[in-house]
Amino acid sequence: MICNMSTIDTIDTAVILAGGLGTRLHPLTLTLPKPMLPIADKPLLEYIIEWLKGYAINNIILCISYLGNIIEGYFSDGKEYGVNILYAKTKRPLGTAGQLKSAEHLINNNNKRIDRFVCLYGDSIYNFNLKHMIDKHLNTKALATIALMPYKIRLDYGFIDVDKDDNVIAWNEKPEVKGLINIGCYIMDRDFLELIPKDTVVAMNTVFIDAIKKGKKVTAYITNEDSFKDIGNRRTYGKVYMEYLRRLGEI
Questions:
Q1: Angstrom distance (rounded) from CA 144 to CA 159
Q2: Nearest alpha-carbon partner for 25 in 248, 202, 230
Q3: Cβ–Cβ contacts within 10 Å for residue 183, how many?
Q4: Beta strand 59-64 with 13-18: parallel, antiparallel or unpaired?
Q5: Rounded to whole angstroms, how far apart are CA atoms 173 and 155?
Q6: Which of 133, 201, 214, 217 lies deepest, with the highest CB count within 10 Å?
Q7: Which fold has domain 10-148+182-250?
């Protein structure tokens, strides 16, 4: 999904969190960082960079740690891919928010003030209108905007309701649970970084919960059910790999 690149002049920078261990994908990630796992004919991370470039986001900060030299060796300064890439490196994984904090010195570059930026995880393929999300963030003047997607799952077990005397009063066999899930793409104002402790292992949800408790404005951008493809485990990775391999064969 590509938009007219001339329409976006408010945000041109993205921070990609690519420093996780990828333990759920062992043994595949013992020698490759998860963002470098091949999807058909190229690494997962390359799809993400191409998607951002399609929305005129040409300045990329890659937060790397585990096997980060492989990522840096492949993409270098990004010129070959039509973008500018800088690297924020840590000696150990710091969690999603901790990784983001490691890029603060690059976001607060005196040569170019970056007031807001896209932040996204390096283990998913995205397919929604990023321009619409950026426009909503700017219009609402929120500290951060989270991309959410409708999701439903049928549980494998029946739920039994009992009263205070342990009498069974209802039986709901394999119920379906519905809700909105976080797909790991955010628009953030630079002030969001002030909520993250430095050199600390901290997850993104912890920081967002803290921001909401402090009364900070956080908005949602709700996408459709085909907004992203998760590469979180071997099952989902295999499914996405085969899908893109079929597409490559059709081409």
A1: 37
A2: 230
A3: 22
A4: parallel
A5: 9
A6: 133
A7: Spore Coat Polysaccharide Biosynthesis Protein SpsA; Chain A (3.90.550)
Q: What is d(CA 92, CA 10) in angstroms, rounded to the nearest whole number? A: 33
Q: 147-192: per-residue pLDDT in tens? A: 999 999 999 999 999 999 999 999 999 999 999 999 999 999 999 9
Q: Is the pLDDT reported for residue 106 higher than 90?
A: yes
pTM: 0.88
Other beta carbons within 10 Å of 175: 12
Residue 110 — very low, low, confident or very high, per pLDDT cuts 50/70/90? low
Decide: helix, strand or coil at residue 186. strand
How far out from the chain centre does Cα 244 lie?
20
160: exposed, middle or buried (Cβ count in 10 Å: 0-12, 13-18, 19+)? exposed
Q: Which two tokens stand for residue 194?
A: 């002030």
Could you please report the per-residue DSSP string of 197-219? PTT----HHHHHHHHHHTT--EE
* 178 Cβ contact list (under 8 Å, min separation 6): 150, 151, 152
β-bridge partners, 216? none
Element (H, E) at 239: helix 234-250
User: So where are the chain's domains?
Assistant: 10-148+182-250
Q: Give the largest Cα separation in the chain, rounded.
A: 69
